[in-house]
């Protein structure tokens, strides 16, 4: 078995693809906050493709971790010369490993914040990209404005403070570039948020305005924030994935990434300076990302929510198990056809019917082993962005909402923290205490859960939604998830 490192690449054999380029020639051009599985299966992979074709060697990635748990990623990548293995899992059981070399450094910000700022201020850094999760943008779900109550943001707003958050670093680095006469970098959000570039611009500008109004004006005028849609199912790496990579291919990797074969990146061509030639490796460069983005958020992401709570309550633990069950597949297709799709604008070049059936095939891939627990996590950041807009548009148009209301009710039931067998559920959510406190009173006060205006706005006062939601919640309590779906199908 070979421990992954630069020196070991030649020993990995023909079954493992390795970088064909000289990594010593790669120079940093991108700083990325939030180096997790998805970034390494997606953006870093596309850059590695470019580098393997002999271009973009001045676009190496410097990862940045700002959270305490990011130290583990620092330790693993540092030990492996910042290499890692991306393992594509095909439905037939075959595995396709490739060592990715586009990450050239990783900085753990709490140890040396000055090094992070120096790298970001360096003129060679032309893009700062983000996968900081939906909650990392600190958006009030109802007003759409910045929620500056986060303790980290508050600390970064103290005059003279050393940055500790992604927002703090980005704004401070832009301030220093402005003062030094260095052109600003492009901020590229790659998170699953509608209008992610617009959201990043609005939130970062709002944060900057609390520090320096003139800086905020400069950011609004000078910094580019392209929107993009990103798509690749990337489950959490398990010990079994490490073991399989070691046993089948002889690679000892402390943190490999596993993913499905499908990948898509639709990117708005709106950069302040130069950019990698992404279009050469399959990225769709477009003028307007919104149709593709809405398609993905309201069909793929919302469907993940539609299957995860109900599936978990029914006893399943993996997405592929749910999507090999006709009852659940029919429910998902019914949601997509009758509630999600009517809210979408035309999507250029996409056959939506084929796309929806392809989603089911992707979800049903037994090799990916995407856990329902992962899909159920951070629901308070996901349901308001992915599903509630569908509910609102359907209500406004007088169309059906029964399936969407059931999804919301299934979240409320899941958040009670006990499954249908009486076993505890580990609810993972940044608003866990508040969500679970409301869910605990579902039976005595069925409207309390959806009365949280920060998550649902005024939906608790809409009689149509209330009727569908309370009916669904009552059925989940009295009959369970499977019988509720059978009743809906009947």
Automatic annotation (TrEMBL):
Enzymatic class: oxidoreductase
Annotated Mannitol dehydrogenase C-terminal domain residues: 288-476
UniProt keyword annotations, A-Z: NAD, Oxidoreductase
Example of a GO MF term: mannitol-1-phosphate 5-dehydrogenase activity
One Pfam family from the record: Mannitol_dh_C
Documented EC number(s): 1.1.1.17
Catalytic activity as recorded in UniProt: D-mannitol 1-phosphate + NAD(+) = beta-D-fructose 6-phosphate + NADH + H(+)
Domain Mannitol dehydrogenase N-terminal: start-end pairs: 29-277
Keyword NAD: yes
Cited Gene3D superfamilies: N-(1-d-carboxylethyl)-l-norvaline Dehydrogenase, domain 2 (1.10.1040.10), NAD(P)-binding Rossmann-like Domain (3.40.50.720)
Residues annotated as transmembrane: none
Source taxon at top rank: Bacteria
GO terms for biological process, alphabetical: mannitol metabolic process
Sequence similarity: Belongs to the mannitol dehydrogenase family. UxuB subfamily.
Name of the protein in question: Mannitol-1-phosphate 5-dehydrogenase
Organism field: Kribbella antiqua
